[in-house]
Amino acid sequence: HVQLVESGGGSVQVGESLRLSCAASGVTDSTTYTYIGWFHQAPGKEREGVAAIYTGGGGTRYADSVKGRFSISQDNNKNTVYLQMNSLKPEDTGLYYCAAGRGGYWLRATAYNYWGQGTQVTVS
Questions:
Q1: Is 98 exposed, middle or buried (0-12, 13-18, 19+ CB in 10 A)?
Q2: Do the Cβ atoms of 27 and 102 come closer than 8 Å?
Q3: What are the tens digits of pLDDT across the range 6-30?
Q4: 26-42: per-residue pLDDT in tens?
Q5: Among residues 35, 95, 39, 92, which one has the least CA distance to residue 69?
Q6: How is 62-88 classified by DSSP, letter by letter?
Q7: Contact 51, 62 (CB under 8 A)
């Protein structure tokens, strides 16, 4: 199993930036997961994928709503995946979860088996 802990959330103004971190511990090799995704859940809405990275090769994918503003990266030495969020908008407000899985469906929540507790981002 793998445990995921998100950090870096906070309250910012429109146009500002935040960097979220997702630290993995436990069994962190490819037998447990090969993709890490970031998901956003706005108040009263379903969770949706915003960015994902293939940990084996570094390939990435983004939701259209964040392309050009968000960037996902990984530090394999630290077993940590980051989500750099720039030019934040009020609609980016919500809980951000990271998730790990081997499903290969990038931004689909059902492809991920392990989830963190989430970190709150508020943009006003």
A1: buried
A2: no
A3: 999 999 999 999 999 999 998 878 8
A4: 887 888 889 999 999 99
A5: 92
A6: E-TTTTTTEEEEEEGGGTEEEEEE-S-
A7: yes
